[in-house]
């Protein structure tokens, strides 16, 4: 038979493994907690987007000095159900909701996973603490009033449409309006906790 030649092997083109690995994007999936209990937050990673899951992009939560203003925040669920809270001008809206006992979706609390997304139907927010908000929300979604409540501070009184049943996904055809009821306990779907993804990334890097 023919003698094996190492030079022949070196000439065979080998496809790049890196090129074959799909990029990832975080999409929120359902999760919940009962009142005053620890939320079992979860996210799903989809290998179908050009975006990359970058844990370094999780925003740094900042404390800012208050200007002494307190805003009224109205949260709307399905059927016109409304809950009103007060939120100081230097507090993130999601934190104020937590303190008031509202169980709203949240996972990373760093402005990247999108689980806390809501629509500001009236009023304004400051989301400047988020390093790259376009990683999660498109320009069109921002124009529609979408906001990440985990790192959004109010700049006025606000009316906010929420998905308190965890019914929203950034990849399912756009905002469907307020859904769920504040008193409901939605069934969680399968998913990975953000902490598990973070730990996996640390293990891969070590």
From TrEMBL:
GO terms for cellular component: chloroplast. Signal peptide: none annotated. PROSITE patterns: 2FE2S_FER_1, 2FE2S_FER_2. CDD domains: fer2. Residues 71-166 form the 2Fe-2S ferredoxin-type domain. InterPro entries: 2Fe-2S_ferredoxin-like_sf, 2Fe-2S_ferredoxin-type, 2Fe2S_fd_BS, Beta-grasp_dom_sf, Fd_pln. It comes from the Eukaryota. Ferredoxins are iron-sulfur proteins that transfer electrons in a wide variety of metabolic reactions. This is Ferredoxin. It comes from Dunaliella tertiolecta. The lineage of its organism: Eukaryota, Viridiplantae, Chlorophyta, core chlorophytes, Chlorophyceae.
């Amino acid at each position: 038979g023919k003698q094996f030649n190492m030079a022949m092997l070196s000439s065979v083109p080998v496809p790049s493994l890196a090129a074959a690995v799909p990029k990832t994007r975080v999409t929120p999936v359902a999760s919940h907690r009962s009142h005053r209990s620890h939320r079992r937050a979860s996210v799903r990673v989809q290998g179908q987007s050009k975006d990359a899951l970058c844990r370094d992009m999780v925003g740094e939560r900042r404390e800012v000095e208050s200007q002494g203003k307190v805003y009224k925040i109205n949260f709307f669920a399905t059927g016109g159900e409304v809950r009103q809270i007060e939120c100081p001008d230097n507090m993130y809206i999601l934190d104020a909701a937590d303190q008031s006992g509202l169980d709203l979706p949240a996972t990373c609390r760093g402005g990247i996973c999108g689980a806390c997304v809501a629509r500001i139907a009236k009023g304004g927010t400051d989301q400047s603490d988020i390093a790259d908000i376009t990683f999660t929300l498109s320009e069109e979604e921002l124009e529609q009033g979408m906001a990440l409540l985990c790192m959004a501070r109010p700049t006025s009184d606000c009316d906010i449409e929420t998905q308190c049943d965890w019914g929203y996904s950034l990849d399912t055809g756009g905002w469907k309006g307020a859904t769920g009821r504040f008193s409901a306990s939605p069934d969680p779907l399968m998913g990975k906790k953000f902490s598990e993804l973070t730990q996996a990334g640390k293990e891969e890097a070590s």
